[in-house]
Amino acid sequence: MINVPNINQFSMVNKPAASIPKQSQPVASQSQPVQNTYTTTIYPQTTIPVYTTTKPQSGEPVKTSIFYINDLHGQNIRMERLVNAVNQFDHSAYAKTADMMKFASGDIMLGEDEKHVKVADEFLNMSGFLALAMGNHECDLPTADFVKLIKDKKYKLLGLNLNPSETNPIHNYIEKSYVQEINGHKYGIIGLVPPDLHKHVKLQEHLPDLHIEEDFKKSLPEIQKEVNKLQEQGINKIIVLSHSGYRQDVLLAKSISGIDIILGAHTHNLLEGVEENKNLFYSPNGEPVVITQAGRDGKNFGVLNAEFNEKGVITRVQNNIGKTDSYNRNLAARYAFENILGKPEQVGVLKYVEKYPEDALGRENPHCDFIVDALRSELDTDIALMNAANIRGQFEEGRIDTRDLAIISPFANKVCVIEATEEEIVSGIKNRIKASMKSSSHRPGIVQVSGLKYSFNNDGDLLSLSFVDKQGKETPIDINNPRKDKMYTVASDDFCIGNTDGGGMNLPHRLETALKKFDYDKDIVVGEYIKHQKDPIEIRSDGRITKVD
To answer: pLDDT tens for residues 34-47?
Structure first.
């Protein structure tokens, strides 16, 4: 094991809250001795200072260690790996002295496939998570179906700003907050759902009955009221599981008095370590507030270690990020999950797979190339399209089975074949580029293509576009005057074609006259495509999408 000198440890002055200076906080020097340290492998290649080997006595700091996850998006193979990470956390040196807690900040589940939702519920139960904040993807299913799948849950389901009608099935399952007691110490736990939930859920019929305030600022008084209610019970350590997004979490930290930790989600930020004005802020009464987020798709998990003084103010904190894929798959979890999902079928072998791009939403993604090429080939269309964010897993070299494919494209959208004009295709691609380049995270993501080749710039302008036939011949398309009478057959899915909120091509009318509609997602098509390949399969980019800086 390699000891990394900089462990991103942050030490705060133990003073009354109001006197903590807001300009700078002293970072613990590596030259300062760290007492009672223990080197553990729970975070690969990192040396972790942990707590004393005896229980804290009266007047000593309350020591807390929190295992947190967010935005797993139904990645059940990574859930198997996370079970081993959780087991290591549970048996670490922390367990002897610290209050150990495990929380999930939403979007652990994903899609309309009930089996995948049930697997996520099983994962949370078997791993001992204490609470889950409702994310938008926990609302992919109608609430009546969702609550049936989680009726045996062992965790709390939280959503302070979700106000379902009393007749809504979820009304009896969701709570605004609760009190968690460990080793005689009490913590107030609050959950927040995304204010823009309606924009991120495909099935809309059940949403109007949930009554969500879309203006996050208007929810702040209600949040402060809940914090005050907990404080009136003598609880001075308060943790928020927030699926509101990073900007909202920063606003929350600066606006609400009494919150200590915000375990964030929704915007897929990866917040490593603790840094002032990045994920360390100060409440109106001067107390420090720490924000976390562990990225997306279960690639990472976090462990936040904190010490609280007798007033419930954080005096010492450390935020560690672990890599999920460095852990083996847990065999017991795999057995349990396959009892729900069924045994997978091997469909082929991948000889070479290009690395998944860091900026998967803002550039060509070879993993998406492979999927849209499969759609175009198997459904025999002129072109194929998919939204970049639709892929949540990634291909890996070696054997590939139906379960691998299902988590690469997990949304349970419906494959379709439509006809669209050249003008409609150009307009959809332009709009997606423009929307994606406005965002630093490049959400909602550019359109990934097969049978087309295009270039664009950082300003979000489409620079060129060509149709590429199946013999490789390129025909330029006039992007300024695209033809209204030129029709193309298009393979895609119902979300990419029909979505009108920036996540698709905004062509719902074309779905109404679709040439073909299928009752399955792209993973089924890709599986058949792999089976039909005679040559060794290689997944690599080919320059079909070019970003000009």
So the answer is: 333 222 222 333 43
Beta bridge partners of 305: 65, 318
Report CA torsion sign: 355, 356, 360, 363: positive
Beta strand extents in 412-477 (DSSP E only): 415-421, 447-450, 452-457, 462-468, 474-476
pLDDT of 210 reads: 83
Query: In percent, how much of the chain has pLDDT > 70?
Result: 88
User: Which parts of the chain have pLDDT scores under 70?
Assistant: 1-59, 202-208
Strands 452-457 and 537-539: unpaired
Nearest to 504 by CA among 437, 429, 423: 429
The CA distance from 424 to 63, in Å, is 58
Domain boundaries, the chain: 63-326, 344-548
Question: CA–CA separation, 164 vs 211, rounded Å?
Answer: 6
For 1-45, write each residue's pLDDT tens digit.
222 223 233 333 322 222 223 333 333 333 333 333 222 222 333
Pick the CATH number of 344-548 from 3.40.30.10, 3.90.780.10, 3.40.190.10, 2.60.40.420: 3.90.780.10
CA neighbor of 314 nearest in space, from 507, 120, 1, 66? 66
Looking at domain 63-326, its CATH architecture is: 4-Layer Sandwich (3.60)
State the pLDDT at residue 254. 98
Q: Residue 413 in contact with residue 495, Cβ under 8 Å?
A: yes
Pull the structure tokens for residue 430: 């332009």
Q: How far apart are CA 96 and CA 319, in angstroms?
A: 19
pLDDT for 16 equals: 29
Concatenating the DSSP letter of every residue in 69-113 gives E---TT-HHHHHHHHHHHHHHHTSGGGGTSEEEEEE-S--S-SS-
**What are the start-end ranges of the E strands in 374-414?**
383-387, 398-401
CA end-to-end distance (rounded Å), the chain: 40
